[in-house]
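Progress against Task 2.4 (sequence-to-structure conversion) is shown through the following example record, which the project officer requested during the mid-term review.
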Amino acid sequence: MVRVLAVADEEVPAMESRVRDLHVDLVLAAGDLPWGYLESLIALVDAPAVYVPGNHDPSTAGGKGPRGFVDLDGRVATVGGLRIAGLGGCVVYNHGPHQYTQKEYDRRAGKLLKAARAAGPVDVLLTHAPPLGLGDEPDGPHVGISALVGVLETLQPAWHLHGHIHPYGMHKPDRELGPTTIRNVIPWQVIEIESASAPAASGPGRRG
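Structure tokens generated for the chain above:
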């Protein structure tokens, strides 16, 4: 069982003191958090970490991103004992660096599925935005990604973790699609996930 800390969009007050007792094996960041905040977080928990960018994140061209994190935008990798597929950004509304049309997401999703077929079973789908009709909102900036429905139906991961839709004090219930639990992780969630894909030794271990 892999104990995961998933984070997105909103900084947690007093993070430095609250995170020390979480004892997690892996950090998954779903976008729109300051890179300095993320770097401080993984320094405290001393665990491997991956991220996908959100629509408010700066460009990650040229390998830029938070130090110590594996960028999984459009990629599949085994990290910390889980095989994770990632897709960042949201549906275009003001032409930021991580915004795409639904047709562009169709193409990006197709490439992700091709990579996933080569990698094997996926445990977690990590995205910034939710699927269309499954936890999204009707306003333009918060419309979900239609291609993610097909990605979930094909990959059937145990978990799909995302951010982007701010709770504003309201409970955001989990959604279910087949065997997949879809969860909005803002601001953070601790989840225990059993790997169906690969032994923990195949991914990066804790940093010494």
